[in-house]
Amino acid sequence: MVQVIFERAVGEGLASTDLADHLGIAPSTLSHLKTGRRLASSLGRDVIEKFAEFLNYPVLAVLILAEQVHLSDFYSPRNDLDRAIDRALQFMADDPEWEG
């Protein structure tokens, strides 16, 4: 994600200090993100929203790119699914119309 930010900044002719100002972060924070000394996953929601605005991306997309949201956040753990299946099977077993 940080690379995308810098590519967009270069495309728009923004210097690093101007980019940091636009994103509402210190130039040192931007530098640390670029060099990997700071991870995007440590950024606050307000900064993520500024990144999303700058990139014209949905906030959720930037949260995913920043590794703050994972695909596993969108589904229940397997044990919840197992319980739901067990309940459905029990319902069918108890229902005379489903009884075999």
List the helices and strands and how they pair.
Layout: H1 2-11, H2 16-23, H3 27-35, H4 45-55, H5 59-65, H6 78-94
GO molecular function, one term: DNA binding
InterPro entries: Cro/C1-type_HTH, Lambda_DNA-bd_dom_sf
Protein name: HTH cro/C1-type domain-containing protein
In short:
The chain is mainly α and 100 residues long. The chain has helices at 2-11, 16-23, 27-35, 45-55, 59-65, 78-94. The chain has a single domain, classed as lambda repressor-like DNA-binding domains (434 Repressor (Amino-terminal Domain), Orthogonal Bundle).
Poorly predicted tracts of residues: none
Radius of gyration: 23 Å
Mean pLDDT: 88
Number of strands: 0
Which topology does CATH recognise? 434 Repressor (Amino-terminal Domain)
Helical stretch count? 6
CATH architecture: Orthogonal Bundle
The helical percent reads: 55-70%
Overall geometry comes to: rod-shaped
Determine the strand fraction and express it as a percent band: under 5%
Name of the level-1 CATH class: Mainly Alpha
By CATH's scheme, which homologous superfamily applies? lambda repressor-like DNA-binding domains
Query: What is the CA-CA span between the terminal residues?
Result: 55 Å
Name the helix and strand elements from N-terminus to C-terminus, one letter apiece.
HHHHHH
Number of domains: 1
Largest sheet: none
Q: What is the structural class?
A: mainly alpha
